[in-house]
Design brief:
Layout: E1 18-21, H1 27-38, E2 42-47, H2 50-54, E3 62-66, H3 72-81, E4 87-90, H4 105-133, E5 136-141, H5 155-175, E6 180-187, E7 190-191, H6 193-201, H7 205-214, E8 222-223, H8 224-235, E9 246-249
Helix pairs in contact: 1-8, 3-4, 4-5, 6-7
Bound molecules: nicotinamide-adenine-dinucleotide (NAD).
């Protein structure tokens, strides 16, 4: 493999790569779909939110497909339609607010299902194609709220994101010799529509915003675009020697 680092080269860093990602209609998924396309990838952007997803059709290099990542049959059907895949980016996830005492069984099951089982289903559906190609790259969305850092009121969320780290390391270890690598991204607090919803959800959004900002050592949130740039690196051949890693991007929150 040779990397094109020639000064003045117009080649994108992801030229020719087919990238499938979930939860692409907003937030980090959307920013990543746009960043991947800018770098020359052929992006297949999926989400359950059809209307928001369709906005991405306006960008060169992006095609969209409605996909609910909790539905095995939909995932298997989708995988059967895809001929080649270089990068699978599992983004979908939900933040449940509360301690273990606030987390009912239905909340536990919902989060485990959306945040972890979905990645198990997606990887199981797409890995055989990567193995047949003798190359593949999987990126999973975790969080520093996981096995990395204890965070208040993030009980089931942290349990799911720690599971994502375990899943990532396991897949990386099992398939490293078959040309597959697998990493996960562990952001701190990222300014996305769902973060804004969490801020607005309580009785005092102003206080909630202050509390969220107070826990940032940099005094600000990450932008979705900043996280997307890390994902471009992980999706590209520049990171060919990186596998099995929870890659932290948290402005020092976990220090
Ligand atoms: P978001 O929460 O604003 O958007 C989530 C997207 O997921 C939406 O477009 C929604 O339609 C889609 N979605 C929901 N259920 C789905 C399903 N069943 N199938 C397919 N798509 C579905 O996005 P975000 O805040 O950028 O979060 C994306 C990921 O990043 C999540 O896994 C989240 O846990 C993780 N993360 C976010 C932050 C943050 O501060 N925002 C921090 C660390 C990790």
């Amino acid at each position: 493999m040779s990397l094109d680092c020639t000064a003045g080269s117009t080649m994108g860093r992801l030229e020719g790569k087919v990238i499938v990602l979930t939860a692409a209609a907003q937030g980090i998924g959307r920013a990543s779909a746009l960043a991947f396309a800018r770098e020359g990838a052929k992006v297949i952007a999926t989400d359950i939110n059809e209307s928001k997803l369709q906005e991405l059709e306006n960008y060169r290099g992006i095609q969209t497909r409605v996909l609910d990542v909790t539905k095995k049959r939909q995932i298997d059907q989708f995988a059967s339609e895809i001929e080649r895949i270089d990068v699978l980016f599992n983004v979908a996830g939900f933040v449940h607010h509360g301690t273990i005492l606030d987390c009912e069984e239905k909340d536990w099951d919902f989060s485990m299902n959306l945040n972890v089982r979905s990645m198990y289903l997606m990887i199981k559906a797409f890995l055989p194609k990567m193995l047949a190609q003798k190359s593949g790259n999987i990126i999973n969305m975790s969080s520093v709220a996981s096995s990395i850092k204890g965070v208040e009121n993030r009980c089931v969320y942290s349990a799911t994101k720690a599971a994502v780290i375990g899943l990532t390391k396991s897949v990386a270890a099992d398939f490293i010799q078959q040309g597959i690598r697998c990493n996960c991204v562990c952001p701190g607090t990222v300014d996305t529509p769902s973060l804004q919803e969490r801020i607005q959800a309580g009785d005092n959004p102003e206080e909630a915003l202050k509390a969220f900002l107070n826990r940032q050592k940099t005094g600000r949130f990450a932008s979705a675009e900043e996280v997307a740039l890390l994902c471009v690196y992980l999706a590209s051949d520049e990171s060919a020697y990186v596998t099995g890693n929870p890659v932290i991007i948290d402005g020092g929150w976990s220090l």
